[in-house]
Amino acid sequence: MGTLTLAETQDLHTNFYTFEGVVRALNGVNVVVQQGETYGLVGESGCGKSVTVRSMMRIVQAPGRIDSGRIVLFLNDQERARGIEIVQRTETYMESIRGSDISMIFQEPGAALNPVLSVLEQVKESYQFHRMEQMIEETLAAMDAERSRRRRGSLRGAGAVIQAALLRKELAATRRFDERVRRIDNELYQLETSSDTRSEERKADLNRSRDHARPRTGIVAVARRIPFLRRYRRRLDATVRAHVVELLRTLGIPNPENIVQRYPHELSGGMAQRIVIAIALACHPTLLIADEPTSNLDVTIQAQIVELIKELKRTIISSVLFITHDLGLVAEVCDRVTVMYAGDVSETATVRELFRNPLHPYAVGLLASVPKAEQAEELAMIPGAVPNLIAPPTGCRFHPRCPRRMDICVREKPDTVEHTPGHWVACHLYTGKDGGHA
Questions:
Q1: Domain presence at residue 398
Q2: What pTM, to 2 d.p., does this model score?
Q3: What is the DSSP code string of 70-115?
Q4: Per-residue pLDDT reduced to its tens digit, 247-290
Q5: In this predicted model, what pLDDT tens digit does every residue of 118-170 receive, in sequence order?
Q6: Residue 413 falls inside a structural domain
Q7: Cβ within 8 Å of residue 192, ≥6 positions away
Q8: What is residue 393's DSSP assignment?
Q9: Hey, is 350 helix, strand or coil?
Q10: Containing structural domain, residue 324
C-alpha cells in the first residue's frame, strides 16, 4: 500500500497588511506531510516556516490573512478520497479540530502559557473541550461502582444519586450536540465541491448552524447556578485532574500531583516546555506541529525534549511537522525536509538525499555553513540577508545572494521540478531554461 497523505498546502499565499505595506510572507507554498513521518521545515529566521504552520492551523494573527491557496487535511478514512479543505471552513469548525486532530507546540513556552492560570487549568481545557463525553462516562462508572458498595438509604448515597442523574443529563446533551455537529459536518463535506447558488446558500446555512450550535443542557444549566447542586461537577473535575496528572507523569514530569498546582512563573524553561507539549498531546492528535520546540533551552534540556518528541512519535502521534533552523536536529529527527527561503519552497527531499546531494544554491549554502568536527578552514557563509518581504526581489527571491545567478533568475520565478524521484527543487539550474549568467 502506498504512502498516505495527512496534510498538504497548495499554492498557499499569506500576506500581512501593515502600515508600511503588504508583507508577502508566503509566496505559493506547497507542503505535503505523509502519514507516519516526521517532516521538517528548515531555513533562516524570517523565511516563513512559522507562518506556514500557523496558516495550516488557521491561527494567523491580524493583520495577517490567507489570501489564496488551499489547505487540505485527510484526518480519517471517510475523508481519504479528497480531504477537507479548511480555508473556507468557519472558526467554530477549526476550534473543533485544533487540539484533537491537529495540535501545535509553540516556540516560546513563556508566551504560550497563561501566567494567571495554573498548570491544571491550562492542560485540562483540552479534555473538557474535546473529550467531555469520555470524562463523564468514566465519572459515572466510578460513581456506580461506589454506589454498589455503599449502604442504601444514606444521605450520602441520596446525594450521589442526584449527582449521577445530573451527569447523565449532561452526557445525553453532549451526545446530542456531537451528533448534530457530525451531521452538519458530513453535509458540508458532501457539498464542498459544489458551487451552484443553491449549494452555496445551503453551505452558508449549515455554517451558521455550526457556529450557533450549543449543548442543550436544560435542568443541568439550572443546577449549575445552585450551590448545593453544582457540586455534582466535583467528581467530574476529579476525573479530569487524574487524566492530567497521568499525562504529566507519562511525559516524565516529576511529582505531577504538585506540578498541576503550580503557575508558569514557578516552572523552569524545560518544565514549561513539557507543559506546552502536554497541552498539545492531551487528545492524542493525528498531526503534531512542533515550532522550534527547543529554542532558548540549554543543550541538555534540548536533548531531552527531542528524545521525548521522538518517543511520542513512536507511541502516540501519527505524524510530526518539525520546524527548526538547526540542520543537526533535522538530521536527527526528520524523515523528509523542505528548505524554505523568503516565503518560497526551495527544495524538498528525504533527509539523507538532501545532505548527500543538495541541489538549490541556498540549500548548498546552508549545509556548507554547518560546522564539522574536522573543521580547519573558516566557516562558509551565505552573503547578504533575507530580503524585506514588503518589496521582495523579482523572479527567484534568492537571486540577490545566489553565487550561480542567471539573467532569468531576476525575471522569472522558477517552477518546482522533480529532479530525481522524491527530490524536488525550484531553481532555473534544473528547469531547462537558460537565461545566461547575470
A1: no
A2: 0.86
A3: EEEE--SGGGTTT-EE-TTS-HHHHHHHBTTTEEEE-S-HHHHS-T
A4: 999 888 889 999 999 999 999 888 888 899 899 888 888 899 99
A5: 999 999 999 988 998 999 999 999 888 877 776 554 545 666 787 888 888 88
A6: no
A7: 82, 84, 85
A8: P
A9: strand
A10: 5-116+286-391
